[in-house]
Amino acid sequence: MCMEYKSPLSMLYHWEKHTPDxxxxxxxxxxxxxxWTWKQTAGEVRQLATALIAIQLPPNSHIAxxxxxxxxWIIADLAIMMAGHVSVPLYPNLQATTIQQILEHSEAKLxxxxxxxxxxxxxxxxxxxxxxxxxxxxxxxxxxxxxxxxSIHQPCKENLDRKETDxxxxxxxxxxxxLPKGVMFTFKxxxxxxxxxxxxxxxxxxxxxxxYLPLSHIAERMLVEMISLYAGAQVYFAExxxxxxxxLAEAKPTVFLGVHRIWTKFQQGILSKMPQKKLDVLLKIxxxxxxxxKKIKSGLGLSxxxxxxxxxxxxxxxxxxxxxSIGIKIQEAYAMTENCCYSHVTLNxxxxxxxxxxxxxxxxxxxxxxxxxxxxxxxxxAGYYKDAEMTSSxxxxxxxxxxxxxxxxxxxxxxxxxxxxxxxxxxxxGKYVAPSPIEMKFSINHDxxxxxxxxxxxxxxxxxxxLSEKGRKRKAEEINDDIKETLNxxxxxxxxxxxxxxxxxxxxxxxxxxxxxTPSFKIKRNEIEKKYTEFYASWLNSKGDVTWQK
Length: 550
Hints:
The chain is globular, with a radius of gyration of 24 Å. The protein contains 19 helices and 27 strands. α1 (8-18) crosses α2 (38-54). The longest helix is centred in the first third of the chain and has 17 residues, at 38-54. By secondary structure, it is of the alpha/beta class. It has three domains: 8-231, 3-Layer(aba) Sandwich (Rossmann fold), CATH 3.40.50; 255-303 and 306-420, 3-Layer(aba) Sandwich (Rossmann fold); 425-548, 2-Layer Sandwich (GMP Synthetase, Chain A, domain 3). The strands form seven sheets. A five-stranded parallel beta sheet has the order 4-3-5-6-7, with helices on both faces. The protein starts with 7 loop residues before the first helix and ends with a strand.
C-alpha cells in the first residue's frame, strides 16, 4: 500500500484546525518565555505569506533567511512555502564573503534577517539592492521591519499548498572543501523524511524539542522543524549561549540532539565538579549510583529525555560508553545534507556502540568501490543548484547517492563508519592512510579539542591538535606526558604505515571565524593543510613524540 505524503503546510493546517490553542513554539526573550499556539503560528505565517505574495516576485523565487534559531525562523520558512517560493537558509555565523557567494549564487530576491551576533560585519556581504526584512524582536540597520512589511496585509485565508515535485528549499552545505554547494529539495523530500522518521522513532504530540543547533543545518531542520510539524509537538528555543543551560533545564526536552562537541562540553562540565575517580567510586555503590545518575541527568536538563541522539559529526565510542555509565543512553544517527538527513538511526532499545544504527524505512543501502556507503530513497536531493556535472557525479548509474564515507555493514544490518573515502592520503612510502578512524582514537584524551591527522607526502603521518578548555589550564609538561601516553595506546592498534610519528600541539584555535571549522564544527582539512603544510618538515624533524607550535 502506497503511503500518502502530506506537505509541511498541510500539517500546519491540520494542527491549526484540530489543536488551535495548544502551544507550539516557546521562545525566551529577556528571560521571559513567549508562547505561540498553533493558531497564532499559522496566523503569522498567513500574514507574512500575504505580504510576500503582494510584492509580486516571480513564482518559485529564492528567498534567503539568516538568523539564529527562533520562533520566527520556522514561521518565515512556512510563509515562504505558502507564498509559492523557495527558502534558502544561511548559517547565522557566516562571514560576509560567504554570505555574498551564497546570495549571488542562489539569485536570492529577498533576505530575511533575524537574531545575529554581528550583523554589522555580515551585512557587507549583502549584494547592493537586495531588500532585507528584519524578523520580530530584531532591529537591524538597512532592513525593513517585520511589522511595517506585514501589518498592512490581512492573513491569507486560503489553505494554499504546493505540489510534491515543487522545489521547497535550497540548503547550502557547510563546505568542508571548497565553496558551499546548493542542495535542492522538493516538498516530497521533506514529507517523505519527516513522516517516516516520526513514525519510526515513535514520536508523538507530547514530545518537547529543544532547538539550539542551527536550523539552517539539515539535521536540525528535519528533526526539530519538520518532525515537530508532523508529530504536532512543542519546540523550545535557547535565548543565547550563556543562557543555554538555564533554558535547557526549563524546557526539559523529551527529544534532544547533541553533536560530539556538545557531549564533550557536558562531560567536561560534569568532571570539573566531580573528578572521574570520585565518580567511579560513587557509581559502584548501588544506592548512591542511582542518586548520582539522576542528579547528573537533571543537571543537564535531560531528566525527561527519552530520545537522545547524536549526529552531524562522529561521536567516539568511548564517549558514548562514558555516558552509558552515568545512565544516559545516546543513540547514534548518520545522514548527510544530500540525502535529506534520512539514512540510519539507532533505536533506544537496540543500541550497538560503535555503529550508527540501521537503515530507516524504505532506505536502500549498499557498499560500492572502496566500501563507499551508497544510499537510495525518495527523499534524495534533486541535485546541486546550477551544477549538473557535480550532480551527475554524486550518483551511481542505479540512482544511489555516493556519500563519500567508507563503511562496514554487519549481519544485523548495523552500519559502522570506518573513514572518509575522499580524505584518504598517500604517504611518501606510497601507502594510503584514512585519517578519520585515527582521529577518533585520540578522543580518549579529554585535554584535546580537535585533531587532524595529515601526512600526504610525509614518511609517516603526524597529528595536529588543539587543546580543550580543560587542557589549556594545565602545564605543558603534564600535557606532554598525557599525549605520550595516549600515543602509546593508539600506535600499537595501527598498521605500520599509519602510526603517528609526531603530535603537534597548536597554539592557534580552530574556529568558524578563521575558516578552519565549518558552521557545523567539522574541520576543514583543505584549509588546515594550506595553513600548516610549510611547517610539516620541521615539526617532523623536531625531537620527541610531542612538539609545540612556536
